[in-house]
Amino acid sequence: MYPIGVLFGLGFDTATEVALLVLAGTAVVGGLPFYAILSLPILFAAGMSLFDTADGCFMNFAYDWAFARPARKIFYNLTITGLSVFVAVFIGGVEVLGLIAQNADLSGTFWSFLAGFNINKAGFVVVGVFVVTWAIALAVWHFGKIEQKWEAAADGPQD
Q: What pLDDT does 132 receive?
């Protein structure tokens, strides 16, 4: 149950709640004692608490960094907005193209892949895109010296 709590902390709450209810229901039918059945929600809550706490700490750090200076705030907002748009277009595109492939009886490798695409695998793609995006954003920020260029432009031309 701990891994399911971890997934809940990552945002897969609906599926994990259903899985938890099914597991608890089958445990009752199987004749397990009450303390064994209660271990499932306790482990679930532990995993959820761990990742919600880690997420809160990370976001607190990110917001403190972003709102310290105007250039950081703009860079952070552009990065988050771009990432959100990509994820929305990716998930929506996979879903729409999968429906088109199924309803139009399209064949071929691409259409077969989309028709049978497990949307749960898209979560791994999204997590990977988040990691890659943040690595690239940090590299651009650091090596591109965005903050120094912004401050130099704000100070105006120097003679």
A: 93
Query: Please, which residues have CB within 8 angstroms of residue 73's CB and are 6 or more apart in sequence?
Result: 66, 67
Cβ-contact 34, 70 below 8 angstroms: no
The Cα 55–Cα 60 span in angstroms is: 8
SS3 per residue for 134-149: HHHHHHHHHHCCHHHH
More confident site: 13 or 131: 131
Average pLDDT, integer, range 65-77: 84
Least reliable range by pLDDT among 30-34, 59-63, 85-89, 100-104: 30-34
CA distance 63 to 66: 5
Is residue 122 helix, strand or coil?
Answer: helix
User: How many whole angstroms separate alpha carbon 159 and alpha carbon 155?
Assistant: 12
Q: Is the dihedral of CA 153, 156, 157, 159 positive or negative?
A: negative
Write down the pLDDT at residue 125. Answer: 85
Please tell me the predicted confidence (pLDDT) of residue 148.
82
Please state, in angstroms and rounded to a whole number, the distance separating the CA atoms of residues 146 and 15.
41
How many other CB atoms are there within 10 angstroms of residue 31's CB atom?
7
